[in-house]
Amino acid sequence: MEKAWSYVFSSLLIFFFLQFIQLQASSSMYTRPPPRSIIFTPHNRSDSEPQQVHISLVGRDHMRISWITQKHAPSIVEYGKTPGKYDASVTGDHTSYHYFFYLSGKIHQATIGPLDPDTNYYYRCSGTGEEFTLKTPPTTFPIEFVVAGDLGQTEWTESTLAHIGSRNYDVLLLPGDLSYADTQQPLWDTFGRFVEPYASSRPWMVTEGNHEIEVVPIIHSQAFTAYNTRWRMPFEESGSKSNLYYSFDVAGVHVVMLGSYTDFDAGSEQYKWLQSDLAKVDRSVTPWIVVCLHAPWYNTNIAHQGEGENMRKAMEELLYQARVDTVLAGHVHAYERFTRVYNNKAEQCGPVHVTIGDGGNREGLALTFKKPNSPLSLFREASFGHGRLTVYNRTHAHWSWHRNDDTDSTVGDEVWLESLAGSSRCGVSVHSRSDDDEL
Questions:
Q1: Which pTM was predicted?
Q2: Which of 106, 135, 164 is the last residue of a domain?
Q3: What's the CA gap between 84 and 257, in Å, rounded?
Q4: What does the pLDDT look like over 156-190, one tens digit per residue?
Q5: Is residue 432 part of a domain?
Q6: Residues 6+ apart with CB under 8 A from 300
Q7: Taking the CA of residue 398 as centre, how many other CA atoms within 13 Å lie in the half-sphere pointing to its CB?
Q8: What residues are annotated to the active site?
Q9: How does pLDDT run across 396-428, given as a tens digit for each residue?
């Protein structure tokens, strides 16, 4: 009966929420296509058995394991390097949240480590159920990131995840819009089960999108309730005061996850944190800087025109002065790659901006681009897919976009990138070239 009432009230909430969104977007020229079908992943385990398992990086040699049980269970993770043999264990904690008449399961979190780099570990949550396997990322080059924005839980998403899993990688970056629950809280549960085979084996580092806000005027004023509770990121370790923005280092790459839907002007906590965070980066230790955010600062698609402009005006100078190498965004349900750019002009010391909001969401693709094409935009296509950033050494990385083409993943766009840390023309200290810099 409680679940039935939950669905009824969730349906009412989504109605009010969509009315609110329509009012906010009434000035947009873009008309969103009708929703597409969602894959509802069933709950087929016992209520005490762990589900929705996912992992994230914490510091240089720890990982946070997150999972949910429907009934009370110990917040313990047992782990080791041999299947079925656990020589270490950690006890974490658990929490839950209410969203009107919806009550989440017990959301457990435990941080394991220190862990050896580039190593397979086997682990079990709550002392029962399935054994999972994770692989820690390396501490030296090369390292490969997968990037998938606006993911959702549809057949398109299923194809994207299958293509992602068909090749090895080290860390997944998700620049916003995860479950597309849009206040229907049971969809957070189906999403957690949907991505578990992938998110339990490699660290998923995420930031929020507009679909994580889940504010209903008057009825529910607290934003990001489900997102912040279910997908806790290592914000405190990076000096941030909010789970909506943070940074982390992995194998010579400094990754900054920014929040498009929290304050970002020059007087905001996020701005001051970003300024401090970038100032601490030692490019001799971490020669690459990658930034992820949701609403793109550069966009030639009709969809979501100008929605990232205020954030660009507020923060672009910080990224430019820090010589950020690339900015990866979502929100627009298509793929687009720009030249190095700063202040709406081609600039050899600016970052390469990429929009990759084409993971497989239920809303469909943003099919229409502005004409004529801007000279800043080098490649654009409305197709589902994912990206891969392989950082080979201190100076060179390879970016590729993989289009979802039936059962096969097809490379639709690719480019070699040179780190601005090794560029004397951009005023960043130049390191001495050594053998590990050879391609």
A1: 0.91
A2: 135
A3: 35
A4: 999 999 999 999 999 999 999 999 999 999 999 99
A5: no
A6: 336, 369, 370, 373, 374, 377, 380
A7: 12
A8: 304
A9: 999 999 999 877 889 999 999 999 997 777 865
